[in-house]
Design a protein that fits this description.
Elements lengths: L1 H24 L14 H7 L7 H10 L7 E2 L2 E2 L1 H10 L14 H9 L8 H20 L3 H6 L11 H10 L2 H4 L7 H18 L21 H13 L12 H13 L10 H7 L3 H16 L10 E6 L4 E6 L2 E11 L8 E10 L3 E2 L2 H14 L3 H4 L2 E4 L2 E4 L10 E4 L8 E2 L13 E3 L3 E3 L2 H8 L8 H9 L4 E14 L3 E3 L5 E3 L7 H9 L4
Parallel strand pairs: 3-14, 5-12, 11-13
Antiparallel strand pairs: 1-2, 3-4, 4-5, 5-13, 6-10, 6-14, 7-9, 8-9, 10-11, 15-16
Helix pairs in contact: 4-6, 10-14, 14-19
Amino acid sequence: MKKYLLMLGLFLFLCVSCKKDKVVVATPEITKTTFDSTEVGPFFSKYPDFKSFEEEIKLLYKKHDYHFIWYDYAGRIDFAEVLYNKANQMKKEGVITEIPYKKQIDVLFSEAQTGKADLNSELLISSLYFYYTKKVYAGVDPEKSKLLGWYLPREKVSYVDYLDDLIKDPNRIKKNGSEMISQYYKLKKALQFYRNIQNNGGWDSIFLPSKTILKVGDSATTITQIRKRLVLSGELSNSKMNLFDKDVLEAINKYQKKHNLQFTNTINASLVKHLNVSVEERIKTLIVNMERCRWIAPEIAEAKELIAVNIPSYKLQYLRNGKPVLTSNVVVGKTMHQTVIFSGQMSYIVFSPYWNVPRSIIEKEIKPGIAANKDYLQKHNMEWNNGSIRQKPGNANSLGLVKFMFPNSNNIYLHDTPAKSLFNKESRAFSHGCVRVEKARELAIKILENDKNWSSEKIDAAMQTGKERSYSLKRKIPVYIAYFTAWADEKGDVGFYEDIYNRDNRLAHLLYNDEK
């Protein structure tokens, strides 16, 4: 019996000891403070500049059952520090405006992370989060971008849901991720490059005497100025001579190619004017185009195939799996007939097309022509058709020998043209709104190359038959017509293009005056 009691006592002692050990080593339960939903409203009376985020912040905390997000049992979470650091670097993202209540936020983050949570601090950080994401990711309000002529669809993102993703994976905000199209991050590199030039004093203006044209072999003070300018922007390495030598020629050609300027093999007034645009203006252009990148969903670049037209660069690219398979010069709408910025789905191709003349052209151009010359229609291979006028198929047809259709309310499409000489001009805004494609034949061949019904010979025959024929594509191809006056490569080496529709300054006014 004694032996039994001894064993029982030992057993109970071990059990108690185990329980005590368990209590000692247990991990404290992670809890978050809750608050009353009615306490949110007074915060925005105190911080009215964050008022626009009130509905989203209420939705955010309702989703989290009114628990603190930025604080747990140990204090402020690490991701809050990440957000604060990124918000203080928004200038690198092309955001010009100052953070509202920055002094209060700076004081908050100067305190130790283990500091006690309070609702004011919690809501300040949430407001900072929405300010950051709206400025860096969302950009100006979609309705305002439409007023600037941008009709490409804009993806609606829930930044309430996005916060959960960021907290789980802070790396998405720490480094360049997939939140924007890749061009955004390339322009960001370019912005840093040009800001470094600005911080070092920028570049001096180049003086070229009136009507002077400098050629290889010439010496002049202007050439020394050109050399210094091209060294700064990276086209040349040596700035110490005043001689127009082979190195200067190669640098000028590189500069002209990058910026879509005509090769002249000379230094003329047009080149000097382009070089004399200040570094401050170049920075503003980069910021404007980074903003436009915010308006395009990253998924666009992931499309299996895509046709993209950039109006200011007068270029079309046909991409497959993100890589260009065809690049062509284009002619776009003149200022009075601007090509619309929008997207569509190319669904069919028309060979040997009729040109159904728009009513505006009939009234303004053709009827006066008929009044002056009764043979006007015959001379231009046109005919009346159900009360309207159309131009018959053929080599002289204004649409050329093929057109590419993506039905839309703007009646915009891609097409060939008999006016091939226009593609040799530096500025190519001549059309009535549609996009004329220099390599129209090659585009048709590339689009149909995997279609067993077609070969290059059949395409040529269809284009020359003189009889209109439509062919529906087996898959629809997204077409995006956009407006970027700056475009950078992987290294951040950027080309600047003419703002042919004068849209940059209007957008810059929104950004620099914080009217988002």
